[in-house]
């Protein structure tokens, strides 16, 4: 049982009902700061660049991102984590889960109030104490604790970077990306960014329900259409 899951397809009409879009006033694309520009961050961030959003990719060694940003064109830049946070109207976090405590400690105040799409996953062999905490409390709730004060949405963590690289804009039906969160406006913005990347957003439910599409959850690695994902999610809710 996922409890209060109530899966809803966040198609453009549903997003409009939330009262916001992924564009800033005046119809300008959103500035996105990517924190952690490895396989997931680089892949999904690259899709946003191609959709017209300016993206600042960051890492501890931004000089190593030169080839990534040069290949994506003028809408892509590289910088430090602090620069990405300052730049981004929306932040995309794709670091190892074990890095979240330090991220929150160092940058929590700067991130507070921002919409954050959280693509992290906890693995005990890699992430140590943070992963052990996630096993007890749930990965989504643990993420929210480390990134306290942000408007957190879990997204882009349900499958591999290779799937995001090869399955975007799939026809005739787009691949569904499950998302979950407690902030309706943040969910709406996240939904639009999922669409911009070439996928179909499906709101699974509250932030707690996000554990259903994390590693070990029944919706993890379930790559398919929005209708297929809804059916799986609804079956879990019975």
Automatic annotation (TrEMBL):
Is-annotated flag, keyword Oxidoreductase?
Answer: yes
Lineage here is: Bacteria, Pseudomonadati, Pseudomonadota, Betaproteobacteria, Burkholderiales
From which domain of life does this come?
Answer: Bacteria
Residue spans making up a coiled coil are: none
Ranges for domain Pyrroline-5-carboxylate reductase catalytic N-terminal come to 31-121
Q: Name a GO molecular-function annotation.
A: oxidoreductase activity
Which Gene3D superfamilies does the protein's record reference? NAD(P)-binding Rossmann-like Domain (3.40.50.720)
Q: Which UniProt keywords apply?
A: Oxidoreductase
Q: Please give the name of this protein.
A: Pyrroline-5-carboxylate reductase catalytic N-terminal domain-containing protein
């Amino acid at each position: 049982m996922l409890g209060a899951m109530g899966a809803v397809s966040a198609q453009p009409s549903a997003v409009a009902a939330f009262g916001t879009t992924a564009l800033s006033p005046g119809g300008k694309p959103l500035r996105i700061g990517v924190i952690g520009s490895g396989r997931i961050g680089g892949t999904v961030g690259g899709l946003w660049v191609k959709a017209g959003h300016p993206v600042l990719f960051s890492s501890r060694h931004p000089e190593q991102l030169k080839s990534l940003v040069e290949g994506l064109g003028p809408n892509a830049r590289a910088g430090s984590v602090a620069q990405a946070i300052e730049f981004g109207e929306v932040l995309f976090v794709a670091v190892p889960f074990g890095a979240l405590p330090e991220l929150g400690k160092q940058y929590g105040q700067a991130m507070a109030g921002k919409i954050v799409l959280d693509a992290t996953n906890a693995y005990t062999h890699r992430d140590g104490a943070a992963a052990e905490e996630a096993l007890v409390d749930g990965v989504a709730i643990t993420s929210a604790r480390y990134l306290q004060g942000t408007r957190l949405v879990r997204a882009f963590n349900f499958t591999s970077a290779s799937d995001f690289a090869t399955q975007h804009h799939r026809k005739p039906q787009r691949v569904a990306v499950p998302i979950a969160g407690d902030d309706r406006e943040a969910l709406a913005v996240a939904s639009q960014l999922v669409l911009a990347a070439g996928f179909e957003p499906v709101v699974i439910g509250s932030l707690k329900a996000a554990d259903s599409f994390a590693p070990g959850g029944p919706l993890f690695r379930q790559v398919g259409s929005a209708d297929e994902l809804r059916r799986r999610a609804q079956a879990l809710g019975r």
